[in-house]
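Reopening this ticket.

The earlier resolution said the output was attached, but the attachment link was broken on my side. Pasting everything inline this time so it's all in one place.
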Amino acid sequence: PPPPLTSAASQRGKNTKHFDPPCVAEAGRERCIGRCNEGTSTFSPGTFRYTVDNSYLTPEQRQFYEENGFLHIKKLVSDGHLEIFREEFERICRKEVVVPGLTVMRDVGIAKTEYVPGQQAVSKIQDFQNNEILFGYCCLPEILQYVECFTGPDIMAMHTMLINKPPDSGMKTSRHPFHQDLHYFPFRPAEHIVCSWTAMERVHRDNGCLVVLPGTHVGSLRPHVYPDWPGGVNKMYHGIHGYDPSHSRLHLEMDKGDTVFFHPLLIHGSGSNVTSGFRKAISCHYASADCYYIDVKNTS
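Inline output:
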């Protein structure tokens, strides 16, 4: 059975909570959790499989998500909220704040012996549910009103991240290989899981925006491996094995505060950051409280 729920918060009458499934707390440090050939999805024209009945999304938005696996909402999160999250992230990087259970990640392009101060040494933090300020993102009513359209009203925050994509060192280590997020999650069904990903500044091709393969959410979970890249690859940046490289792709350029919601089987990644600045985004994966655990023994 699942462990007890922790760090509960309630917004707009939603039961928004975070919990640590078995081994998930270790996933960012030791191994990736997922199951190949789980969570297969199919699409039948005229039906809505990937959204629940609601009065918030238009029929056109629901149909777009059915066919493409993502939905881009403009200017959803205010500049004021994003500035609060940015300041707290910088405080964490300066070690002014200690967050229990937080995973701090460093780009492989920065040598272990090289001293880099503050946020310049941090490419990502994840599992920030024990930080009240950053977890506030997960509880924003403007986010949850969309999340409910995918999960239903009983919502759990499953995985949290703030990505600080660094300027690339020239080895292209700042890129993220194509992958499916369901590879990391030991719970199902996939149709009741959604990611909310918010740009904390202008995100474009030069600083490594998200790249999605529209419509790939209707497939199954593929095997994932570390890509064989000359410059190396960041820990836990697994890449999908065996996708069709000729599949059409879309670069999701976003303005500050824009948010994209996407399905956990959607194949996506991000390019290198060839600018001189850091590219920040904050995200949370949500699932219905009715989701259940699967056996992940002998899986990747």
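Reporter confirms the inline version is readable. Residues 1-14, 19-45 have pLDDT under 50 and may be disordered. The first helix runs from residue 24 to 27.
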